[in-house]
């Protein structure tokens, strides 16, 4: 068994991983099995540098607030602001504190400096403005496309009307709504009217796009549409926060990944003429098979952003999962996928999942991790993964 396993693995290198992908790939999802581990971010940076220098990639998007990421992108693309500011305000969920994320922005800025604008790398976030304590107020996302449109079109609403419907931001960001849906304002009459306005704003952006892009720029229009898309997604999510049925948490997971998939779709379309995009997030947000987890003792399942975008892109979407063997005292059992891969002689390896599945002569059991923040790979679904990056120890 060990000999055959070694035949389907190579030492980790960008070229070894991309050799397993379809040449048609436009979006490569690189997943991580848990957050907060620098080794996975460092591996991502190494892969992205290879993709840029040898495979024609010109953008990266990560599991971070799509609106905050505009600040980080302005730094790497145009040198606007300082690196410290980009790290403080260009990321969500505390990701700006990660040294590897800082190195990513620094390297992208250095790469871009001598190059013309059309060759420069872009940085995106593809998560919604969803804080750990709950969703953000829809005010910034809603007022940005309004202000963009009102400069060029006659709109049926005033800014005062929007402010009145929105009310204080504290109504939307009340952390108590995370566990108590009755405190959410997501299904009030004002919220319902705001959802209609957000939908109308996006329709106006689309129907007047030839005039608007000529009067401003394609980039200005894209940012306005990003805000309008985010406003609609946020208001939909706030409505989900007000759901008092047992299906609430599962619905919120679906809504979040739907927002992610919408953002990935928009990024791929924007980058279509420039090159492919690398997307980095948790495996659960990028995998093709149905995602599962337990929250407060309740089993949840949903289709990930990767599964959704994969149905649109076909073989233009590829998924590379990352996992690991030992973490301190957490050592995988030999009968698990991670235990089997731990027999490889490489500290970091690229594994061909299709060939791996063909070599297996026994059924592997899913790993039960010691750390609840880590999600192991399901050995029954490795045929839906294009490549596995395995770290023996973290």
Structure report:
The protein is an alpha/beta fold and 394 residues long. The chain has two domains: 2-57 and 261-393, 3-Layer(aba) Sandwich (EreA/ChaN-like  fold), CATH 3.40.1660; 134-244. The protein is 46% helix and 16% strand. It is built from 17 helices and twelve strands. The strands form three sheets. Strands 1-11-12-10-2-7-3-4 form an eight-stranded mixed β-sheet, sandwiched between helices. The chain has a two-stranded antiparallel sheet with strand order 5-6. Helix 3 runs parallel beside helix 6 (99-112) and helix 12 packs antiparallel against helix 13 (248-270). The longest helix is centred in the middle third of the chain and has 24 residues, at 218-241.
Jot down its keywords.
alpha/beta, 12 strands, 46% helix, Hydrolase/PRTase-associated, EreA/ChaN-like  fold, single chain, two-stranded antiparallel sheet, eight-stranded mixed β-sheet, Erythromycin esterase, 394 residues, Emycin_Estase, UCP036794_erythomycin
Beta content: 15-25%
What's the architecture of the largest domain, going by CATH? Answer: 3-Layer(aba) Sandwich
**CATH homologous group name of the largest domain:** EreA-like (biosynthetic domain)
What would you call the shape?
Answer: globular
CATH topology of the largest domain: EreA/ChaN-like  fold
**What does the largest sheet look like?**
8 strands, mixed
By DSSP, the count of extended strands is 12
Quickly give the structural class.
alpha/beta
Organism: Acrocarpospora pleiomorpha
Protein name: Erythromycin esterase
């Amino acid at each position: 068994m060990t000999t055959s396993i070694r035949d389907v693995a190579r030492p980790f290198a960008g070229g070894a991983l991309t050799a397993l992908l379809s040449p048609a790939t436009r979006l490569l999802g690189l997943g991580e099995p848990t957050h907060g581990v620098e080794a996975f971010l460092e591996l991502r940076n190494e892969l992205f540098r290879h993709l840029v220098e040898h495979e024609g990639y010109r953008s990266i998007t990560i599991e971070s607030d799509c609106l905050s990421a505009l600040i980080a992108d302005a730094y790497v693309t145009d040198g606007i602001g300082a690196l410290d500011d980009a790290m403080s305000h260009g990321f969500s969920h505390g990701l700006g504190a990660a040294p590897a994320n800082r190195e990513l922005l620094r390297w992208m800025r250095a790469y871009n400096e001598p190059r013309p604008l059309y060759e420069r790398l872009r940085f995106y976030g593809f998560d919604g403005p969803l804080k750990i304590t709950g969703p953000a107020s829809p005010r910034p996302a809603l007022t940005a496309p309004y202000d963009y449109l009102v400069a060029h079109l006659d709109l049926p609403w005033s800014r005062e009307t929007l402010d009145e419907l929105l009310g204080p931001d504290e109504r939307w960001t009340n952390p108590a709504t995370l566990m108590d849906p009755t405190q959410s304002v997501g299904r009030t009459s004002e919220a319902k009217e705001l959802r209609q306005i957000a939908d109308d704003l996006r329709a106006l952006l689309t129907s007047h796009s030839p005039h608007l892009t000529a009067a401003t720029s394609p980039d200005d229009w894209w940012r306005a549409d990003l805000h309008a898309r985010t406003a609609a997604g946020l208001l939909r999510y706030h409505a989900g926060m007000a759901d008092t049925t047992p299906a609430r948490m599962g619905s919120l997971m679906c809504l979040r990944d739907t927002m992610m998939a919408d953002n990935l779709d928009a990024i791929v379309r924007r980058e279509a003429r420039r090159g492919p995009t690398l997307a980095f997030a948790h495996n659960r947000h990028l995998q093709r098979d149905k995602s599962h987890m337990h929250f407060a003792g309740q089993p949840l399942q949903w289709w990930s952003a990767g599964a959704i975008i994969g149905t649109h892109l076909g073989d233009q979407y590829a998924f590379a999962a990352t996992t690991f063997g030992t973490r301190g005292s957490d050592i995988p059992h030999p009968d698990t996928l991670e235990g089997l891969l731990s027999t490889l002689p490489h500290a970091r390896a690229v594994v061909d999942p299709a060939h791996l599945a063909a070599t297996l002569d026994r059924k592997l059991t899913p790993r039960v991790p010691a750390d609840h923040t880590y999600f192991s790979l399901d050995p029954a679904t490795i045929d839906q993964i294009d490549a596995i990056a395995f770290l023996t120890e973290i």
